[in-house]
Design goal:
Shape: flat
CATH architecture of the largest domain: 3-Layer(aba) Sandwich
Distance between the termini: 17 Å
Helix content: 40-55%
Radius of gyration: 29 Å
Number of helices: 15
Structural class: alpha/beta
CATH superfamily of the largest domain: P-loop containing nucleotide triphosphate hydrolases
Strand content: 15-25%
Largest sheet: 6 strands, mixed
Length: 436
C-alpha cells in the first residue's frame, strides 16, 4: 500500500502536534527527511532527531515506529511528535509528500485497519462515535464498540444462524448418508424463534441507547413575550438568547444544547407564534412551525394570560409539555402542571418532567448497536428469520427455508463488515476525520 500522511491531532496551535504515516514504504519515506535511517527498523521503537527538508532543519521531533503487522493499520507506521505550530506541521507534511507520501483522505487510517483485519466494522464505527461523543454515556457506549464488546454480543447469534444453516444444507446435499443428523422443521422453528428473540432484544436496546448519540430535539414554543428565550438561557446556563420586554424580539431560531441524564438535548427557541404583518417576523414564525414538525418534544410555554387554544392546536398531537413560566407571579397553581421561573433559573420541575416524558430514567449504558446501518441490518435479519419460521410452520420445502436463512446469514456478515469490504469503505469512512 502507498504511504499516506495526515495530521492526527487538532489543526490548531498547541504544545505538541502528531503527524501520522502508514504504508509499505513508510520507513523509507521518513528516512529521507529524518536525521536517522529507519529503513532497517525491525521492531517498535522511539527515535529523537531532526526533520530536514533538504535545505534547512524544520524541527526537533520524536518518532514512534511500528512494524507491520503490529500497528493500528496493520502496516508499517510512523508517528511524528513535533512542536505544535501549524507552520511546522505544514512544512513537515510538505517535505514528506515531496519524498513519496500522499495526503490521506477522510478515515483512511481506520479504513486500512479494517481492510487489514485489525478491527471489524463495528469497532471502526465506534472510533468515529468516540470522537463525536458529547457526554460520558455516549463515550462509554462508543468504548464498548471500540474494544469489541459490542461485536461480541452478536457473535453467538451469527454462530447459531450458521450452524442451523449448515445442518439444513447437509441434509439437502447428502440425504443418502445415514449418520448425518436429520433436522426437523420443528427444530428449525425452535432455533429460529430463539434467534429472533435475541435479535429483538438487541434492536430494543439499540433503539433506546441511540438517544445518547443522536440526542433529542426540543422546541420551545409559545406566544410572544411568555419567556421562551429566558427559558432557553436558564436551561443552558448561558445568556445566548436576547431577552427584552418587547414582543417579537426573537425573529430567528436560537439554538442551545445541554445534557440531560447523559442525553444531548438540542434546544430551539422559536419566534412567538401570532399573526403578524411584519415580513421578517413572519419568516421567523414560519421557521418556528418547521421546527415544531421536526422536534421530538415541544415545550409549550404559558404565562399568566393562559393557554392560547389556536396555538395549542398546532402542537397538541405532538409529544409536548405545558410549561407555566413566571411562577413567581402566578397566584393560582395546579399541582399537576409544571411551573418554572426562567428569569430566576428555577427550572428543575421542567427538567424532571422532560426526563419522565422522554423516558430517560430507565436507560442503562451497555454494548449496543445504535446507528441506522446496524439497526437496519438487524431488522433485515429478523425479517428473514421470520420468513424461515413461517415456511417451516407451513411445511414448505427445505430449500425455501434454507434460502431465507442464507440471506439472514449474509446480513449478519454485513453487520460486522465481513463481506464486501471494499464496497462499504468509501461510504462509511468518508465521515471520519482525515487523521483517523
Amino acid at each position: 500500500m502507498e504511504t499516506i500522511v495526515a495530521l492526527a491531532s487538532a489543526p490548531m496551535k498547541s504544545a505538541l502536534s502528531i503527524i501520522r504515516l502508514s504504508g509499505d514504504d513508510c520507513f523509507n519515506v521518513v528516512s529521507k527527511v529524518f536525521s536517522k535511517d529507519l529503513t532497517k527498523t525491525k521492531k517498535r521503537d522511539i527515535h529523537f532527531g531532526l526533520i530536514n527538508d533538504g535545505y534547512k532543519d524544520i524541527d526537533q521531533v520524536v518518532l514512534l515506529t511500528y512494524v507491520a503487522p503490529h500497528s493500528f493499520t496493520g502496516e508499517n507506521s510512523v508517528e511524528i511528535m513535533c512542536h505544535g505550530s501549524m507552520l511546522i506541521v505544514n512544512e513537515i507534511i510538505t517535505a514528506l509528500i515531496q519524498n513519496g507520501a500522499r495526503m490521506a483522505v477522510n478515515g483512511e487510517f481506520s479504513s486500512r485497519a479494517y481492510l487489514n483485519g485489525k478491527i471489524d466494522l463495528i469497532q471502526a464505527e465506534g472510533i468515529n462515535d468516540m470522537i463525536n461523543a458529547t457526554s460520558e454515556e455516549a463515550k462509554d457506549m462508543s468504548m464498548y464498540a471500540l474494544t469489541g464488546e459490542t461485536s461480541k454480543i452478536f457473535l453467538p447469534i451469527r454462530k447459531n444462524i450458521g450452524e442451523l444453516l449448515s445442518k439444513i444444507e447437509v441434509n439437502i446435499d447428502y440425504p443418502e448418508y445415514e449418520d448425518i443428523e436429520e433436522i426437523s422443521k420443528t427444530e428449525v422453528v425452535r432455533v429460529c424463534s430463539k434467534i429472533k428473540a435475541d435479535l429483538k432484544d438487541l434492536i430494543d436496546v439499540g433503539e433506546k441507547n441511540r438517544i445518547y448519540l443522536d440526542g433529542v430535539k426540543v422546541a420551545i414554543v409559545g406566544k410572544p413575550n411568555v419567556g421562551k428565550s429566558s427559558l432557553l438561557n436558564a436551561l443552558i446556563h448561558e445568556d445566548k438568547a436576547i431577552v427584552t420586554e418587547i414582543a417579537g424580539t426573537t425573529r430567528d431560531i436560537v439554538e442551545g444544547r445541554f445534557n440531560l441524564n447523559g442525553v444531548p438535548v438540542y434546544l430551539y427557541d422559536t419566534a412567538g407564534l401570532h399573526e403578524s404583518e411584519d415580513k421578517i417576523e413572519q419568516i421567523g414564525i414560519n421557521k418556528a412551525k418547521e421546527v415544531i414538525n421536526k422536534a421530538d418534544l415541544i415545550l409549550f410555554v404559558i404565562d399568566e394570560t393562559g393557554i392560547d387554544d389556536d396555538l395549542f392546536n398546532l402542537i397538541k398531537d405532538k409529544k409536548h409539555l405545558l410549561v407555566y413560566n413566571k411562577a413567581d407571579i402566578l397566584k393560582v397553581k395546579d399541582g399537576h402542571n409544571i411551573y418554572v421561573s426562567a428569569i430566576d433559573g428555577d427550572v428543575k420541575p421542567l427538567l424532571d418532567g422532560m426526563v419522565k416524558m422522554l423516558e430517560l430514567d430507565g436507560i442503562s449504558v451497555k454494548p449496543s448497536f445504535t446507528n441506522t446501518r446496524q439497526l437496519g441490518l438487524l431488522k433485515n435479519i429478523v425479517n428473514h428469520i421470520d420468513l424461515a419460521i413461517k415456511d417451516a410452520e407451513n411445511d414448505e420445502p427445505t430449500d425455501l427455508i434454507s434460502a431465507s436463512l442464507m440471506i439472514a446469514y449474509n446480513y449478519s456478515l454485513d453487520l460486522l463488515g465481513e463481506s464486501n469490504k471494499n464496497d462499504l469503505t468509501d461510504e462509511i469512512f468518508s465521515r471520519f476525520c482525515v487523521g483517523k
